[in-house]
Each structure stands twice: as structure tokens, then as C-alpha cells.
């Protein structure tokens, strides 16, 4: 069935804003500007300030929810389900997981390339699958176990690509690249814990996805903004990229923005894109399908890689292409994207039916209802 113009718009919006989210964050990292007190120009290395901006974008989804709700109530036949009343503190634990994972990922983005950053985030399906078995009592399908194994292989290939690229004189030191890659994978463990918490305690409540994203964004924005104060005094040495060598120097970030306003444009791109990306992801799931959302999310990785090559942010690495394809295959198998293709082949249709019949309750994936964990990017 052909897509409508509105569906095409939503798909394009999701792909574009999802790509902009990572690219704008990396663009900000590439700037150099003077700091406070006429300090020499240095790299804009403020991952926690960037994370605060990202949560502000998620928080704005709450405003979008109430705008849509008011508009719907004024229509002759209201169609929007606002959901049941709930205790907002239900979202506090997953919001803290989101805050921690997002902060770690922005630190890692300073150390590695945008394309590797996006590809390695595919590790989330490994940990969500394992944790869903351990804590949700879920049984994974055979294709999902195969998808997890293939994803692990893809992560190894991407890691090797970064290792060899580091030896070829890339802009990042090899030690930084390896540390960044490990931090991204560690962050995916925390993201998977967030998803399990949401599945266990949140999804049983009838909460509108935009309201859920906005509530988590509120907690993340408030808590991380307050944490910027002690971070200003925590000395971490060479690990930090700011002149004072503290965990986060928000004042230095604002001074650099003042000296180079383009940094603010990059930060705004990150904040605005995450809001639209969450909205588009939810809408794509509702108007088209969750499968389409997963395909578009995979294409986002390709767009980020191509744009990064075009801008000269990184060098072409053949192993990275292979790693992307292997990760794409693993993600497709885990999310059941192979089933529609097999169903069209008469000799293979029974395989799909037998797999689903063996685990009828496993058709619903852990990553559901179009939530966009970006950080998206959350």
C-alpha cells in the first residue's frame, strides 16, 4: 500500500532530525573558541552541558503533548487518548538511567567518530534481550538469539575498524577512540536497564508516549542542571577537555559560546532535533508501523556516516562498512524484520508460523510504542 504524503513527511522528519541530533552534537565538539578570562582557544568539550540541552528538548515534548491535547478537546469529536493519571515519580528511576547513559555517550562522542558512535549504540539490543530474559521472564525467539550473536560480531568489526583507523593518523588518539567505544557500550547497558524499568513499572500504566518522554526529560533536565554545580569543583585531570580540568565547567561553555555563537546553533540543533525526533518516532509507529521506525533508525546511521565522510570529519574505512551491514542484519533479525520477507516465500512461510506459534507472547518487542531513546538521540 502506497504511503500518504503525511506518512512520507513523518518518515523524512524522523530520518532527518535523528541524523541532525548526532551530527549537531559532533559539530559542537569540533569547535575551538576562547574561554573565560581570555584563555587561549580550546576545544568545546562540554558533554554534560550538551546533555542538559538534550533533556530540555525531551522536556519540550510535554508542552507538545498538552498543546495537542487542548487542540483535540476543541474538535467536535476528540480522538486523542490522554491516558490515565499516574505518579510522575514512576519515571524518576528510568530518567536517572537516561541521564547517566546520555552523559556518558556525550563524553564518548568527544573521543570517537560520529558514525562509530551511532553504530555502537546498536549494542543496546544485546543487553535489553538478556535483561528481559533475566528480569521480565521473557523467552527470546531463535531469530532474536541469532540477531544478538550477529550484533556482537558487528560490534567487534566496528571496534577493529576504529582500532586500525586510529593507527592511520585519525584526528582522535587511539587510546581515546578505544575508551570512547567502551564508554558507548557501557552506556548501552544503562539504557537497557532503563528500558527494563520502563517495561516493568511504567508501560503497564496507560501513559501517552509524548507525556512519558516529556516527564523523563523534566527529571533529567532538573537533576543534571543541579549536578553542574558540584561538577564545577570536581577535578578529573587530563580526562577533562576544559582548561580547569574539572568534570564540567559550565561557565567556560558559556564563555566559548559568547566568543563563537555558532556553537549555540549546534546546541540548538541538538535540542530541537531531539524533540522533533521523539515526536516523529512516535508518529511513525502510530501512522505506519514499528518496523518502519526500526528501518529508518538504521538508515540514520548510514546518513550520519556519509555526512561525516563528506565533511571530512573521518576517513573512509572498509571495515566500518562491513560492520554496519553486520549490525544492520543483527538488528533486523532481533526485531523480526525478516518475517515479512520469509512469509512471501511459500517454502519458508511455515518457518515464520512455527517460530511465532512457539512463543506467541514474544511478538511485542521490549522497545515499543515509538519511544526514541536518543540521547536519541536519548
UniProtKB/TrEMBL annotation:
Q: Where is the composition biased (Basic and acidic residues)?
A: 361-378
Keywords, A to Z, come to: Membrane, Mitochondrion, Signal, Transmembrane, Transmembrane helix, Transport
Keyword presence, ATP-binding: no
Any Pfam family matching the protein: SLC35F
| One example GO MF annotation | transmembrane transporter activity
Give the UniProt record's GO annotations in the biological process aspect: negative regulation of mitochondrial outer membrane permeabilization involved in apoptotic signaling pathway; positive regulation of cell population proliferation
Give me the ranges of the annotated region Disordered. 359-378
Q: Name one GO cellular component term.
A: mitochondrion
Q: Does the keyword Transport apply?
A: yes
Q: Where is the signal peptide?
A: 1-18
Q: Which chain regions cross the lipid bilayer? A: 48-69, 89-108, 120-138, 145-165, 177-197, 218-235, 262-282, 294-313, 319-337
Localization? Membrane; Mitochondrion
- Which SUPFAM superfamilies does its entry note? Multidrug resistance efflux transporter EmrE
Q: How does it sit in the membrane?
A: Multi-pass membrane protein
Highest taxon of source: Eukaryota
Under the subunit heading, UniProt states: Interacts with SLC25A5.
What this protein is reported to do is described as: May play a role as a nucleotide-sugar transporter.
Q: Which family does it belong to?
A: Belongs to the SLC35F solute transporter family.
Name the UniProt record assigns to this protein: Solute carrier family 35 member F6
Q: Which organism is it from?
A: Echeneis naucrates
